[in-house]
Specification:
alpha/beta; BirA Bifunctional Protein, domain 2; globular
Length: 223
Amino acid sequence: MNIPLIVRQLGTQDYQEVWHNMQAFTDERTADTPDEIWLVQHPAVFTQGQAGKPEHLLQASNIPVVQSDRGGQITYHGLGQQVMYVLIDIKRHKAQGHDISVRDLVTALEQSVVKTLADYHVTAYPKPDAPGVYVDCQGIEKKICSLGLRIRKGCSFHGLALNIQMDLQPFHYINPCGYAGLEMCQLADFVDPVEAECEKVAPKLVAHFTAILGYNTQQIFNN
């Protein structure tokens, strides 16, 4: 598929700033605008999806809560979590004979995480009734990656958040993704912490995602 793709490594940036930049990018893009992937880490923040219910925030803290326009319920972002935003012109894919639905895009995101974790010999799986990626931890199902998308003008933004090596305590202040009692985990729970670094995981994540969707042209920018 000869659809160009730009990958941007944004480093650490404020959630709201990146979110508003995604909105602006989506509103301003044209039929010729290349698709983009944004890799970023966010300082501590809770984000509430469009249908988010306030009762899923269980405990007040000094961590800000942002009402977002993505799908899903409340989740937490923090340093040591690899966030991958996918800004894709879905209707253009269809016009070029590579028809992908929103469900296909969600599946591609989930499978990119499953394949990335498999690179570290971690067995993970998606669930049809609860978007995201999960791991069986000695008989206890834990979530390692959360998903949330928004589609506007036939284009996607937002994406996934994969826990790599972070402080998981704030997840106890919420019902993650709206599920009471859901436990979270991270890659560092399963591998040598030296290997559990966002900078090492991100290229694998991008490679698997782009392979699943059939991209063959990439430009990488550190901005």
